[in-house]
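Fresh eyes needed here. I'd like your take on this protein's tokenised backbone:
***
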Amino acid sequence: MKISDILQAGDVLVLDGVSSKRELIQGLADHAAKTAKVDARTLFDAVLERENLGTTAMGKGIALPHARVTALKHTQGLFAKIKGGVEFDAADEKKVDLVFLLLSPEDSGADHLNALAEISKIMKSDTECAKIRRATNSADIYKILSE
């Protein structure tokens, strides 16, 4: 699986002024709902429910919130770079500034896990994260993620 299989150029955001984890998740759910053709509240609730089980912050300013949603037809991603970062209950207590949201159909099984593994591989790379942090716009970030 390639990142470009689940992430489109229009699903890469650079956000400023995000004040909380909840506000971030709501904004991501609102954006994802447009392409997923699923109610934003359904997406928000699913991601928040998963997040309440334990933070998806990986440390080093990175979070991979994810959820399985019955109403989804296919796995899709959404990436956000947050200027100034946002508190995300990370174990290292660092604010999160790179967020890759993964949404999958309820019955996606191995596809969901494969997508998480591919995303994790990129986001665990200090080199790739440094490139993303230096990028100034969505198009450049998409290019880095989809290479």
Observations:
- Residues 3-146 form a domain with the Mannitol-specific EII; Chain A fold (CATH 3.40.930.10).
- The mean pLDDT is 92.
- The longest helix spans residues 21-36.
- The two ends are 12 Å apart (CA to CA).
